[in-house]
C-alpha cells in the first residue's frame, strides 16, 4: 500500500512540475504520503499513517473505470485528476496508469496503480491490466489535457480498432476488386458507437 501510493506520489510531483507553470492551469492534485509504522508491542505490529483529510471525500476515478462519475467530469479537481491519469499513461507509453483517485479537494489518498502484465520498469501495480484498457477506451480529454499538449487517446484507440477491424471484412467495390473497410467507415457521420 505504501509502495503503490508513494510511487504514484512521485509521478504526481513530476506532473505538478510540468502543469503548475502553465498559465491558467492553477492548483494541481497532490497524492499525500503514507508511512508504514512498526509497533512491535502491539497485536497488529504494522500500521499505515497518513495526514487526515477533512472535508467531503470524493471519488474522482474508480478502480474498474466503469462507473460514470459526474464529479470527475464536471469538477476542476476531477478534470485535473483525469488529466493526471492521461499524463501518466502517455509518459509511460501506456504501460502504467494511476487509478482509484479519491480524496478531499486536490489532496488524494488510497490510490491504485495498474501496469501491463510485465510491469513497468520493475514495478508491478495492484490493479488489473483491464483498468488500462478501460481508461484508454473511456477517457475524454478536457481543457487541462489540451493545456499539457496530451494526445487524444480516442484517436489512438480508433486507429487500433481500425487495424483490428480491417482483418477479414471486405466490401465489394467492383466485380474484380474487393476493398477492405473498417466497419466504422460505413457508419454515418456523427454516429456514436456504444461498443466500449
UniProtKB/TrEMBL annotation:
Residues 184-196 have a biased composition (Basic and acidic residues). GO terms for molecular function: ATP binding; protein serine/threonine kinase activity. SUPFAM superfamilies: Protein kinase-like (PK-like). Residues 1-153 form the Alpha-type protein kinase domain. It holds the Pfam family Alpha_kinase. It comes from the Eukaryota. Transmembrane segments: none annotated. Residues 158-196 are annotated as: Disordered. Keywords: Disulfide bond, Immunoglobulin domain, Kinase, Serine/threonine-protein kinase, Transferase. This is ALPK2 kinase. The gene is Alpk2.
